[in-house]
Write a structure and sequence with these properties.
mainly alpha; 6 helices; about 5% strand; two-stranded antiparallel sheet
Length: about 150
């Protein structure tokens, strides 16, 4: 990539996040609700709450980290032409992707502080991107995503 990267606007990133949440309904239905429903129905067993929470968090982590490490884009990010990479423009490293995912939880859940952070950040990056050393860039139509 030559020159400075283009950063996606905050409304574009928020729209991508909303679209991502719609896509995640299918993942959660198949990868989370179905196994627990089958376990309860067929084995008459209800998993402890800590198992349920851990299963949910790990399922989403697997989704995000896999996509970020394999092309730098989730399904919604591909649609909205957004890619995540490290600050130098290289693909994320595995621990960096996990850190970004884990930092996104408090960044989003504590009244969206990580999203508000982007309003004041010089590159309009979210707080969890600053923490993980990653950045979101806009993929130009003629530009191909970075290979991992």
């Amino acid at each position: 990539m030559t020159g400075s990267p283009l950063y996606p606007s905050i409304p574009r990133r928020l729209t991508s996040m909303v679209y991502e949440s719609l896509l995640l309904f299918g993942l959660v239905a198949v990868g989370f609700i179905l196994p627990h429903a089958l376990l309860g129905t067929l084995a008459q067993v209800v998993a402890p709450s800590w198992v349920v929470r851990t299963h949910f968090i790990l399922l989403l982590m697997l989704y995000y980290v896999w996509f970020w490490l394999n092309g730098g884009q989730t399904l919604a990010m591909k649609t909205w032409k957004i890619q995540v990479q490290d600050r130098s423009g290289a693909p994320l490293r595995p621990l960096q992707a996990v850190l970004r995912y884990l930092a996104a939880w408090p960044s989003l859940l504590f009244f969206g502080i990580g999203v508000f952070w982007a309003l004041f950040d010089k590159d309009r990056q979210f707080l969890h991107d600053r923490i993980a050393g990653s950045r979101l860039i806009l993929i130009a139509p003629e530009q191909k995503p970075a290979k991992s």
